[in-house]
Amino acid sequence: MIDFLLSNIWILIIPIEILLLFIFYKFYFAEYNAQRWLSKAQETNFLEGLLRPVLDIIVSESTDSITSRMKMELLSAQGVMSKQVLGNINPENAEEQLLAVSQSLLQSIGYRNPSPLITMKLAQGIGGIASQFLDEKGQVNTGQIEPIKTGSELFHQ
């Protein structure tokens, strides 16, 4: 019996060794290894040097894709707005008449489908000029005529 036990003791020792290695690794070696890597990374900043190019690529690609997506959304919204605003202009309404005049002016200088924002700004400009010369009844008001502002004067009102 002793002879059998001595010749086959390795059957008992190997599982015990494996179990001890697993326990030591799980509770001691892994923590020690993580602490050493963390202290080394904090001392030399080598992880930042390794990861900086990757982070720069991610930031630049995501920024480009976000910018492209926002541009497409803006253009899509402008198209929908253009169809809604310029599609049903009522000639009885003075503001909508200005929009129609602005659209035709822009088309006459070469814009095929002018943006509603540009059309609206032009209509506001035409309305501002008209309000300087016309009173509330639509009669020409010559008493308060001021020179028309141009260039940088438009931005400093």
Quickly describe the structure.
By secondary structure, the protein is an all-alpha fold. Helix content is about 75%, strand content about 0%.
Structural features, described:
The chain has helices at 2-7, 10-44, 46-87, 94-108, 116-133. The mean pLDDT is 80. The protein is mostly helical. Helix content is 74%, strand content 0%. The protein is rod-shaped and about 125 Å long. Helix 4 (94-108) packs across helix 5 (116-133). It is built from five helices and no strands.
Record keyword descriptors for this entry.
157 residues; mainly alpha; 5 helices; 0% strand
Number of helices: 5
Structural class: mainly alpha
Order of helices and strands: HHHHH
* Proportion of residues in extended strands: under 5%
Largest sheet: none
What does the overall shape look like? rod-shaped
Could you state the oligomeric state of the chains shown?
single chain
Q: In whole angstroms, how far apart are the ends?
A: 110 Å
Q: What is the radius of gyration computed over CA atoms, rounded to a whole number of angstroms? A: 39 Å
Low-confidence stretches: none
Number of separate strands: 0
Mean pLDDT: 80
Helix content: over 70%
